[in-house]
């Protein structure tokens, strides 16, 4: 191979791909740590560091090649982006949604029941008087459906969403509605919740 092509095109491209892969694995590793999936994390960490060592080794051998630095930085940026896209796509885990409204929420709750989304309702007092506080725990894949129902029947309600590490029992949408084949495969391999 022509030394110019090797040093200024082929080598930077390999460094870019390696860095992109190791950062993508690192992003996924952090997500799975947060979800409590302890069995798969060490494997991701092993390959992440192995790829990083190969890439940094090439950088150290070619310190005078500025294209290697650009490839390293570009691979890091792209790896972050791809890792976030993958995490968003597979949407692992559960989330708790809190809804606070001072309007009637009967129809909203009926729609949640029809969609097989369980909810707990409590009375509360807000800045402008009595409110209803609604709690529910959902698969992350079902958050858009929940928000759509909320926007139809209680569009002015305040809501917040947070991650849940684990949950036990409860009313959840069926596996068909959850719809995540990848999530169900991963959850069978690395169980983190019970009673679902």
Question: Can you tag this structure with a few keywords?
Answer:
7 helices, alpha+beta, 196 residues, Alpha-Beta Plaits, single chain, four-stranded antiparallel sheet, 17% strand
Describe this structure in words.
- The protein is α+β, with helices and mostly antiparallel strands and 196 residues long.
- It has two domains: 3-90; 94-189, Alpha-Beta Plaits (2-Layer Sandwich), CATH 3.30.70.120.
- The chain is 57% helix and 17% strand.
- The chain has seven helices and four strands, in the order αααβαββαβαα.
- It has helices spanning 3-34, 41-61, 66-90, 106-114, 143-153, 175-178, 181-189, and strands at 94-101, 120-126, 129-139, 158-164.
- Strands 2-3-1-4 form a four-stranded antiparallel β-sheet, with no helix packed on it.
- A hairpin with a 2-residue loop joins strand 2 (120-126) and strand 3 (129-139).
- Helix 1 runs antiparallel to helix 2 (41-61), helix 1 packs parallel to helix 3 and helix 4 runs antiparallel to helix 5.
- The protein is elongated, with a radius of gyration of 23 Å.
Summarize, please.
The chain is of the alpha+beta class and 196 residues long.
Structural class: alpha+beta
Helix content: 55-70%
Strand/helix succession = HHHEHEEHEHH
For this structure, the CATH topology of the largest domain is: Alpha-Beta Plaits
Q: Give the CA-CA distance, first to last residue.
A: 57 Å
User: Any guess at the CATH architecture of the largest domain?
Assistant: 2-Layer Sandwich
Largest sheet geometry: 4 strands, antiparallel
Rg from Cα: 23 Å
| Assigned CATH class of the largest domain | Alpha Beta
How many separate domains make up the residues?
2
Give the low-confidence spans: 175-196
Number of helices: 7
Instruction: Report the strand count.
Output: 4
| Average pLDDT figure | 84
Shape: elongated
Order of strands in the sheet with most strands: 2-3-1-4
């Amino acid at each position: 191979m022509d030394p110019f092509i090797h040093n200024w095109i082929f080598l930077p491209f390999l460094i870019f791909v390696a860095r992109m892969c190791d950062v993508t694995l690192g992003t996924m590793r952090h997500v799975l740590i947060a979800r409590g999936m302890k069995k798969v994390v060490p494997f991701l960490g092993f390959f992440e560091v192995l790829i990083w060592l190969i890439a940094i080794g090439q950088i150290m051998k070619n310190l005078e090649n500025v294209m290697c630095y650009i490839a390293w930085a570009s691979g890091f940026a792209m790896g972050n982006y791809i890792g976030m896209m993958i995490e968003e796509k597979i949407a692992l885990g559960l989330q708790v949604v809190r809804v606070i409204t001072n309007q009637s929420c009967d129809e909203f709750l009926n729609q949640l029941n029809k969609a097989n989304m369980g909810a707990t309702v409590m009375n509360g007092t807000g800045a402008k008087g009595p409110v209803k506080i609604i709690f529910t725990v959902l698969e992350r894949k079902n958050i858009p459906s929940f928000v759509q129902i909320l926007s139809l029947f209680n569009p002015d309600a305040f809501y917040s969403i947070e991650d849940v590490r684990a949950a036990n029992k409860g009313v959840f949408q069926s596996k068909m509605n959850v719809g995540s084949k990848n999530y169900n495969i991963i959850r069978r391999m690395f169980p983190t919740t019970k009673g679902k």
